[in-house]
Amino acid sequence: MSTSDSGPARFDAIIVGAGVGGLYAIYRLRKLGLKVRAFEAAGGVGGTWYWNRYPGCRCDVESMEYSYSFSDELQQEWHWPERYGTQPEILRYINHVADRFDLRPDIEFNTRIKKAVFDSNASTWTVTTDKGSVATARFCIMATGNLSTPRRPDYPGLERFRGKWYHTGLWPHEGVDFTGLRVGVVGTGSSGVQSIPIIAKQAKHLYVFQRTANFSLPARNAPLDPAKERAHKAEYPARRRAAFDTPFGIAGHPPPVKSALEAGEAERQQAYEAKWAEGGSISFLYSYTDLLINKESNETASEFVRRKIRATVKDPKTAELLCPNDHPIGTKRLILDTDYYETYNRDNVTLVDIRSKPIEEITPDGLRTADREYPLDAIVFATGFDAMTGAMKEVDIHTDAGISIREKWQHGPRTYLGIMMAGFPNLFMVTGPQSPGVKSQMILACEQHVDWIADCIQYMRGRGLSCIEAEQAAEDAWVQYNNEVADRTLYPLANSWYVGANIPGKPRVFMPFVGGVTAYKKKCDEVVANGYEGFSFGGGSDEQRSAAN
Ligand code: N01
Q: Are 142 and 396 within 8 A, CB to CB?
């Protein structure tokens, strides 16, 4: 890329991130004839699947669904060996996509965007990289991911720890062998729950430091049945379309027809047992219509899972500690596991309650809680991410009018459709806050946003327009609607990363859109059908502008 002595390198669109969303953005925008350049902090493609290499990492959406739909050849030729893809398999797939569509020449790897500034006279964004190089483009597309800014707690003493420590979201590429070691895992979200059973098999002793018990369901992973794969592939295009007619963007689960309270106790138990045996979170949450909106209904499902935990874990004290009691099931990301609760029956595994006796410091030889020191050779922080806003706020994004994203979002994110923001023209987000992204099948969500963005750019180019911006009133109304929709559900009751509760000091705002993929997609399509309602355009001739505005 050009440096400042030859002037900034010029592109039509700059894409930040070469994960699932960024790669598809390169593909789509290049097809429109745009000159694009993607910047990726990592040494390879894949985003979340590049960084999260911890033992046991796999997707909790089934592999036939969790894949790109934009190329029928691609979806027909790729073979997923298991019901749920492992991290190495998904990363292999994403690398295959990058090669098959020759996307790498337009990506600058090992390059982090530090700053992005909008020039309102030229209607362009100029980005500066961590290497000091500069590039300019009309459009800037932030495909920076929702769970891409790992956070570890700042306990005092970590720098004096004589063992090794890791974060699940920044796992060493060469892997880690815990054989014979005393290991501590801090955190029991999806990353902790997936890695704990595997680390337990290697470690001499594993201490799990749990602040909050989470609900986890069996994944029931298995090799993919070839007959099922053939049947799925034969119906792929129809199934992809059907996915948009579902709340979570995942087809193949018949929608529930009645409230949990309309079923008798025996019928409910039978229904939950069937879903437990089938495995998977969507099908379990689809047991009844109101599990995520009615506390009493939800409690029937929550208690079913608690009973399963008590039946699985032999030590009653440990079982009780593992029973979630501070949030309704499904209001935090529901976890899928393989042998998680069974792992606590091993002699070399100890569950430590850090809710009642918090971690006070890391010592040179381990970790000290309020009541004792645990000697450790390795610590694994499975403590999650600064979700949904962290990656955007890490970049110093501002306009020449002086507004920055950090200021705009100081009380929580504000967007229109999770795609754009008032005050930030020509800056698009892929699965930004206040869109369903994390509450849906992420690849489908990325494709929908990138398609919307590409169509919008094409619309502008066809009309000679150089600038698009979300209107303040449209953004305000969308943020309010997002909150109203969330308030009709049980989601806000949980201290989850959906509300930023895992980051001390982060404003408590419900961030994802939980009105469902169907309603969201309909709204996005209507906005376009109504001539980009809620957006205003600039550039072009007076006639072109007034026709568009
Ligand atoms: O992170 P999390 P994650 N002291 O935030 C604890 C996706 N994902 O990496 O609940 C002590 O869920 C925290 O405790 P608490 C998926 O969307 C998907 O596991 O805040 N503990 C919690 O137990 C998922 O939801 C897949 O009290 C602290 C844990 O650390 C999201 O990524 C796999 C602490 C963090 O859980 C994030 O999952 C993996 C502190 N100071 C991830 N701070 C699949 O597809 C935090 N904790 C399967």
A: no
Alpha carbon of 290 to ligand 1 centroid (Å): 25
- Strand partners for 14: 37, 140
Cα angle 503, 504, 508 (rounded to 5 degrees) comes to 75
Predicted local confidence at residue 459, as pLDDT: 97
Q: Is the CB of 333 within 6 Å of ligand 1? A: yes
pTM: 0.96
For residue 2, pLDDT beyond 50: no
User: Tens digit of pLDDT for each residue in 188-241?
Assistant: 999 999 999 999 999 999 999 999 999 999 999 999 999 999 999 999 999 999
The model's confidence at residue 4, banded by pLDDT at 50, 70 and 90, is very low
pLDDT greater than 90 at residue 409: yes
Cβ neighbours of residue 334 closer than 8 Å, sequence gap 6 or more:
215, 216, 217, 281, 284, 285
Give residue 312 CA to ligand 1 midpoint distance, Å. Answer: 23
Ligand 1: residue of 53, 190, 441 to mutate (most ligand atoms within 8 A of CB) is 190
Q: Are strands 58-62 and 84-86 parallel, antiparallel or unpaired?
A: antiparallel
- Ligand 1 atom at minimum distance from 211 CA: 27
C-beta of 190 in contact with ligand 1 (< 6 A): yes
Alpha carbon of 63 to ligand 1 centroid (Å): 22
Q: Is 149 in the pocket of ligand 1 (CB under 6 A)?
A: no
pLDDT at 542: 72
DSSP class of residue 260 equals G
Closest-lying ligand 1 atom to the alpha carbon of residue 168:
9
The pLDDT value recorded for residue 5 is: 56
Nearest CA owner, ligand 1 atom 12: 189
Helix or strand (DSSP H, E) at 113:
strand 113-119
Q: At a CB cut-off of 8 Å and minimum separation 6, what does 512 contact?
A: 388, 433, 434, 435, 436, 437, 438, 439, 498
Is the CB of 213 within 6 Å of ligand 1? no
